[in-house]
Amino acid sequence: MSERNRELMNLIVVGMLTGLGFASVYIARQSEVSTASLSYAGFFFGLYLVAHTVARFTVPHADPYLLPIAALLTAVGLTEIYRLNPDDARKQAYWVVIAVAVFAGTLILLRRDYRELESYKYLFGIGAILLLVLPALPGIGSTVNGARLWVHAGPLRFQPGELAKLALIVFLAGYLREKREVIAQGRLKDLGPLLVIWGGAMLVLLETNDLGSGLLYFGIFLSMLYIATARFAYVIAGAVLFAIGSFGVYRISGHVRDRVDVWLHAFKYADSTGYQLVQARYSIAHGGFGGTGFGRGIFTQPGSSHTLIPYLNTDFIYAALAQEMGLIGVSALLLVYMVFIARGFRIALLTDDGFSKLLAAGLTFAFALQTFIIIGGILGLIPLTGITMPFVSYGGSSVVANFVLLAGLMLLSNRANAQRGETS
Amino acid sequence: MNKQVTRLAVAAIVLIAALIVGTTYWQTWATAGLADRQDNALVRVAQFTVDRGNIYASKGRVVLAKNVKRKVSGQSYYFRKYPNGYFAPHIVGYSTRNRSRAGIERSENDYLTGANGTISSVARRELDELKGVTVKGNDLYLTLDSRAQQVAVRALSGKCGAAVAIDPKTGRILAMASSPTFNPNVVEENFSAITRIRSAACSYSAPLLNRATQGLYPPGSTFKVVTAAAALDSGAVKPTSEFIDPGYCEEYGKRVSNAGNPEVGPEVFGTVTFAQGLQHSINSVFCNVGKKIGAGKILEYARRFGFETSPDLEVPADAQSPSGLYKKHKVFRPRHPEYQVDPGRLAFGQERMLVTPVQMAMVAATVANGGILMQPHLLDSVRAPNGDVVTRVKPHRVRRVISPRTAHELTQMMESVVTGGTATNLQMNGVRLAGKTGTAETGIANKYVTWFIAFAPAQAPKVAVAVALENQTGFGATTAGPIAKSLVEAILAEKANT
Fold first, then answer.
1. pTM of the complete model beyond 0.90
2. A286 — contact with chain B (CB < 8 Å)?
3. A43 inside 8 A of chain B by CB
């Protein structure tokens, strides 16, 4: 079976699962939601067929599991968002349409050779910095939940950090590919531009007060540096630097200090700063082994529309999923993430040039690390920071950025598989 | 580069695996602890989706707690209703959204929500959850007897205190009432109505307090039963042992006078037997007995009666206090009672000794039961929704406290209290009542805690009672006594019918 036919088969399975998900929400909450819920499943199946068709023409040899997995994760997220708030689900649906359009656009634009991007690496580097600075600018930037991450343009709100992440990976892939030998020798001169860009990014993060993104960007940076140079000492040195920097930020920023205190003693602050985290754990614990089932979880007081956990459908959607799907359900979900990550690294192994390897590994690791940072924060493995759960959380910028990431991985695998086919 | 990519891939997979491990922790190990936390609003809401078990008393004849089903946005919720709210609110407690739970509603929550019990009831609950069927909890049946309980509640109304009645052979608590009382139906909507309750009879109204299990009162002369048990059982004294009462007892070179005891006035009895000492509640006799056997011996027997430990009833642990010597609001267990405790005053119920009414009922019940203490209990049985008995509380023998001979001698002495001692006003028609009065000083002039502990019929006891009243000006025999007597009458009449 060809890659695309296999993808289609997988998508049909995902489509059926989506239908089941919406149907169970509908059954559990008949008085709250209308039969329109069932049309969501059909609508999304159609949408993914469009994406599939575009892929058939542009990237015929691409990995057949990536798109179905993205579709499955989006469907799980949308089902849960729909269950929590049907209005939000409608907005999210619009964003998914936009995201699929951007996905298709990226595939069409770069279908010949994505490696051209390498020539524009400095443009991507500067772009990443500009995107990160945007929310800090007065007038268009705004602070939500203690962090300046948002840009307002009329009725639209956007988190440019999500796209900055991708631009940064492209830059790093290009730059490290070019300089990897000299950097590996450890000459400070060649590390200079990297340090300058990194220092700028750190300052911006301090200004925007967002520790989670800081950890994410630094993790991406270190992982790609390691792949390029094979020098584990750099990873150690970088981690030490980050620890020192974090301690500095901890001392300066009250927002970050609160987050760390809550991380260490969540239950001590159960009525104040730790409320959200403690409630999230109650929610997860209530799910237990088998979960309550879609639509049957408890998120509000009887008759109230106000959720017990603030930001439930964005940062804390994992707490909602864990309650309704139980340990079995969310473990399966995390395994799906694992498969996506494994496929991503497989692409990195199959590609035959440095830029592609760095790009594939960088994109995949960014995806993995982001998943770890938000869920690990909720579970108390690391301090909590408000970033989104890839493909699942409510949030337009995140969905669009993740579909661009998906398009990138599919372009990479298309080329790798096509070449393998030629040589073998 | 592939080597590095592989390593990074392993690292990424490990990160996600760590998430699975973390989730497993919160969804298995931590669940019970989190669900028990009082601020867990989610579990509280969740339990309102459970058709909570009903609570009954008197073999199901009295409904104490049931549910009212209400649909809120498509989901059925079961809210609590207490049809006989004033019957035993201190025991039943309440289950609300805002103020969480109290009483049996809290301590037996697992049974009521079907979360505990036999394997089959847990399995049934899990199945119901899977099927999306409303989970039904188990019903509780309390040992309370409807007539006795109503008599106790009515007799205490307007007063401040508690009354307890126990079946001495089984430990079943037939009545347990505390006054002032409250209506559990208003806890959710109008809690301030409860905090506004004032009782003229009390110094502190505290209507939510279960005075039967939490009220700590000086026992006064009722404690002489414990001292007498210790003295007789250890062989130090016989009922016929003679004492010379000069009207006072000398301790540490000072006179402890009978005159301080308003029950008998400043009487001087001269030469009396030990039995007469109890009959007329003569302080000097007990003072000398205490000096003779020592505080350690008295406390040893008190412990055998259950002092210094929780009575271990089914109500929440923090709603029951141990009886004993108190120091800075804590039970004081002297290491060297011979010089840490004044034996003379302890012997007649002073000296920092504080007791709960349920403990004194246990003392009376032990004597009534031939010297064997039975575990008192409020729960009769737990039944599944289909009527199957999930568990039934069997009579449990705690220990032999005193020999049958001592119990018999004490019974005769306590009977003489009613036939010719301090409680002659409480004689019953055709029923031999054995009892002991108490009138304890509170430190405030003319304000006493008055007591009566009793059991009947003396030859074959069916009920043991203890009544304590705060802020009284009269004697134990005239204030607490009549309440205890009416309680005994109600229970004996009930037993005669069945």
1. no
2. yes
3. no
**What residues 117-146 of chain B have any CB closer than 8 A to a CB of chain A?**
129-130, 132
Site of tokens 């989706």:
B49
- Contact of B492 with B462, CB cutoff 8 Å: yes
CB A330 within 8 A of CB A317: no
| Nearest residue, CB atoms, A30 vs list B18, B74, B130 | B74
Contacts of B31 in chain A (CB under 8 A): 285-286, 288
User: A364 contacts in B (CB within 8 Å)?
Assistant: 9, 12
B39 has a chain A CB within 8 A of its CB = yes
Tell me the pLDDT tens digit for each residue of B175-228. 999 989 888 888 877 777 787 777 777 878 888 899 999 999 999 999 999 999
Torsion of CA B328, B334, B336, B338, to 10 degrees: 90
A319 touches chain B (CB under 8 A): no
CB contact under 8 A, A302 and B31: no
Of A29, A298, A348, the CB nearest to B42: A298
Nearest 5°: phi and psi at A267?
A: -75, -20
User: Which of B5, B16, B25 comes nearest A361 by C-beta?
Assistant: B5
Cβ contact (<8 Å) for A289 and B28?
yes
- Write out pLDDT tens, residues A14-30: 988 888 888 888 877 77
* Longest alpha-carbon distance in chain B: 109
In chain A, what residues touch B13 (CB-CB under 8 Å)?
Answer: 338, 341-342
DSSP B412-430: HHHHHHHHHSTTGGG-BTT
d(CA B382, CA B96): 22
For the stretch A188-234, pLDDT in tens is 676 776 677 667 666 766 666 667 777 888 889 889 989 998 888 88
Query: B20 and A368 in contact by Cβ < 8 A?
Result: no
From B65's Cα to the closest Cα of chain A, the distance in A is 21
**pLDDT at residue B263 in the model:** 54
pLDDT(A160) > 50: yes
**Residue B259's pLDDT band (boundaries 50, 70, 90)?**
very low
pLDDT tops 80 at residue A386: no
CATH of domain B146-497: 3.40.710.10
How do the domains of chain B map onto residue ranges?
Answer: 41-142, 146-497
Angle formed by the axes of helices B146-156 and B476-497, nearest 10°? 160
The pairs formed by A264-271 with CB atoms below 8 angstroms and a separation of 24 or more are: A266/A380, A270/B39, A271/B39
* Alpha carbon of A391: minimum distance to chain B alpha carbons (Å): 16
Closest CB to B9: pick one of A286, A345, A369: A345
- Phi then psi dihedrals of residue B396, to 5 deg: -125, 120
Task: Give chain B's length.
Answer: 498
CATH topology of domain B41-142: Penicillin-binding protein 2a (Domain 2) (3.90.1310)
Helices (H), A253-316: 254-264, 275-287
- Residue given tokens 């004996």 in the structure block: B492
- B224-233 burial string, b = 16+ CB within 10 Å, else e? bbbbbbbbbb
Q: Do B74 and A286 make contact, defined as CB atoms within 8 angstroms?
A: no
pLDDT of residue B368: 95
Provide ipTM, 2 decimals.
Answer: 0.93
Percent of chain A with pLDDT over 70: 88
Q: Residue A369 and residue B22: Cβ atoms within 8 Å?
A: no
For residue B496, the model assigns a pLDDT of 79
Q: A281, B30: Cβ pair inside 8 Å?
A: yes
Q: For residues A352 and B84, what is the distance between their CA atoms, to the nearest angstrom?
A: 81
| CB-closest option in A227, A286, A349 to B43 | A286
pLDDT band, residue A248 (cuts 50/70/90): confident
List the domain range (segments joined by +) for residue A340: 3-423
